[in-house]
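Technical appendix A lists one of the benchmark inputs used to test multi-chain prediction within the project. The record comprises two sequence entries:
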Amino acid sequence: MYDFEYHKPKSLDDAAATLSQHEDFKLLAGGMSLLPALKLRLARYSGLVDLGALGQLRGIRREGDEIVIGAMTPHAEVADSAAVARAIPALAALAGGIGDPLVRNRGTLGGSIANADPAADYPAGVLGLGATVVTTRRTIAADKFFIGMFETVLEPREIITEVRFPIVEAAAYSKFRQPASRFALVGVFVARTRGGVRVAVTGAAPSVFRFKEAEEALTKQFDSTALDAITIAAAGLNSDIHASAEYRAHCVMVMTKRAVAKAANVPSPCNERGRVRQGATMSVNINTPSPGSSAGERGSTYR
Amino acid sequence: MSININTPSPAISGGGLGRGRIGQPVLRKEDLRLITGAGCFSDDVNLPGQAYAIMVRAPHAHARIVSIDTAQALAAPGIIAVLTGRDMLADGMKPIPHRPFSPHPADMPLENTDGTPIFTAPHYPLAPDKVRHVGEAVAMVIAESVAAAKDGAELVEVDYELLPVIANTAAAASPTAPRLFDQARSNVCLDGVMGDAEATAAAFARAAHVVRFETKIPRVTGVPMEPRAAVGAYDPAIGHYTLHAGTSGAWRTKADLVIMLGVGDDDVRVITNDVGGHFGTRGMLYGEFALVIWGARRIGRPVKWTCERNEAFATDYQGRDLVVEAELALDADGNFLAMRGSNISNAGGHTTNFSPLRKGVEIMSSIYRIPAAHFRARGVVSNTAPTRPYRSSGRPEVLYVMERLIDLAAREHGFDRIELRRRNLPTEAEMPYTNPFGMIYDSGAYHRVMEKALGLGDWAGFPARRAEARARGKCRGIGVANYVDTASGVPRERAEMTVHRDGTVDVIIGTVSTGQGHETSFAQLVTEWLGVPFDNVRILTGDTEFVKFGGGTHSGRGLRLASIVIWGASQQIIEKGKRIAALLLECESGAVEFRDGAFVRPGRGRTVSLTEVARAAHELPDVPDDLRGPLAAISDETITTAQFPYGCQVVEVEIDPELGSLEIVRYSAVDDVGRAVNPAIIHGQVHGGIAQGVGQALMEHCYYDPETGQLLSGSFMDYAMPRADNFPFFNTEYVETPSPTHPLGMRPAGEGGTAPALGVMINSIVDALSEFGVRHVEMPATPERIWRAIREARGGAQSMCDRNTPEVMLR
């Protein structure tokens, strides 16, 4: 870690003022991505502005047809929120499946979408639900917010304050995990809204993106069979030591169908398990017992 | 030395003693300390006035060092010294004394066919002229703080002349491949054969069936929970070096440092406290160990170095990496006639160790009866991190090949895979069995253990479970794999035992627990044999100040050899004790018996305790001179026989055919441990061993970019470690067939979990995919590989041409 100045402003105005005085200062939210990058000397900033003391950026409320979540709200609070679970259960499930308990207790919504990791979960939820990102300067539609790998339209001195998620008719998130990092190898968020179906894909490409062909087909018929005639091109998708673009393209189709099936509350023929296995899918329903978990198969024999 | 296992020691027949005897699953003594943060690992050691070292590491896989400019770094704040390979050579540092093979007489010789010596080249802690893998150290920066040292390291300017890179194992063997060592004819350092070529050719000529299998067992790394760390100190007044570091044996590390520094045996002390994982990764001295003590002498202050995880991924000794081509010949009834083939093992960027190559080839026929065999064995170097023996050196690789060959033979030539195994497993009447390479398997109830595992895994009930899984859209498969494991390693070990006047017993021994629980299981031996309360036994290891010799911990030799010398020392204590007790009991020493921790004169009812005898040795005026003082004994033994633990695993998996993802749903293992000292520790070893083997089969992979030699799996973000939720609960059992080649009947249990895991996993996966006609899935069997295997078997192979990931990405 290189030396840096550390600021912990008491108000949003102070934070904005500090940022405006120092061009290369960086905002620190939960620090789940930033701090490891600093420790590994992969990133260098002359100062950090820690948003941790700004209580007004933290919290969850329902306003009309929206769930409004403060930018500094940790994932665990979203996962455990009764309001979110009632209004957009898929969003609570998404938050509950990010990283591990340590990450969920520290990592924040605002930090995640500002970082725009191509394999992060929240960008899929924000884009899939067609949420609105509110900053100290403006409101930004999700469709305009993510523009590339670790890249958003946020300006250097702009601070996300909250994200407004519309309550939709049905939604689900299906994630296929990369076995090492357990980030999304491919994650698909499907939402059926009054204006049509939205499908957002994370992990597969340099940035989260909307799967327009799937959206059109699903808007006509919200059923996984509507996707049978659709494919997604491998060109432009990520290829790395964990999965080729071709396999990712295949996974996008499978995970989209599974998300649709989940959102439509119709059990998929290959129902997902609650427990995370090697490369297994994540499921909202963690109460379905795994067939492999019957008592007869689980006891370790000791003599 | 002779100890008859069939004659119970007095303590065994006596009974009535409390906790901690042999066979009891007592809780581990060390765990309270370790899990409450009271352990002392290498990085916990801090010496007054210490400075901090950071290594400047090569960003290139193969390059000549043109120049190193340290001026800017030296001018940076807090920098004390910047030392290069040139400084190191100027001070006379010798290379790391790697040994190509373990020095055990039970292992088969492997030499170059053309009679030339095996090629080896010096491996220095700092590369003086050339770097041969990414991460190789070229300079050491010592500073007042880690941060200052890191700042300084960034200012060291190294001018590299880039050289062509060769990272792939099979390609490295080519005569036209870029050469790592100018003084070598090629990258092939060792090219030998084992077995009987003529007999093998004759057997193949009359075979009814031949099955062929080619595979690569990928490179993995140990990933100990505790990364390396080292603190070095130097006392100029007496010219004495001290190293604090996690090792697998302090004495051997000391002996190597003595060679590297060119100093006397008494001039180096190595102290190893708690060690958080080994697996072979800590089996040899690391260059940094020599650098910190040398640096301490150079700057006149202690020097500390702590490895970070990314350094560990790039520079820990790695494991496996073997390319195999093998053929198995069978007669019409399914009897194995012969096997032949070729193995290429990758030693990485230096000629560190060819033991895994040899230990694999010599047991290529696995546990089965195969009359003839012939294998070519080549060891190559490449622009990757150096490799060493890794949990069950060389064996899981070849055991996997054999188990795949059997399943392939069954499938391609119409045999039942269990019947094929039954037909070719040696019976107890055939023991000891000499395999076609000359290895002598001591004993074993191979059939009984396999049947037990098949029962534990409910092989018979599988069809119903498969049908049930199919109804859920899952492909369920079952696999079986047998193993036999050669436990050899350094053959000598030494124990020094003292019974103190307060009744406590100290045992000094030259192994080091790197997680195996020696403080517990070794204490159980003393409790059993001397009748001393379990809590009164202290096991002292890891400090060359009092450890006068030690072979270290590897090759299943910890308890296996410790038991022999602890037994030997115990018997000496009893014999000496009888002579002293005779004085107290007023009789001839021949009339004294030792029972339940006390000396008795039969018929008189009077007893004296071991503690009283220990006191008398100090205090009684008429104790003979040779017994006066501490009641102590030394046992120093060289055991030239190897032991052969064996066992069987049965695994079931369920595959989601859409994604290729899998879940392990049942895992059963049976191991023959000869004689169980602590069942809980044995089960723990098997559990950890299974996880390590399954990790290799499914997800772990040190992935080097073939073009650049860059390590693309250099962090936990990309190197997939198995986690608890990757597994079901395991069903593990053991049997106890005393090993006739071990004086106490013991067989090691530390590697049996890993040894068959690769084969049983791939066998179960291929069985799950049998309905699609999938012949094989290479390791790691990732979801993509499984998905591709299904697709290709279904006839989608044409799309393989247009996919945008070269196959090498998956290798």
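The CA atoms of residues 565 and 780 of chain B lie 41 Å apart. Confidence is low (pLDDT under 50) at residues 1-16, 797-811 of chain B. Comparable benchmark entries are summarised in Table A2.
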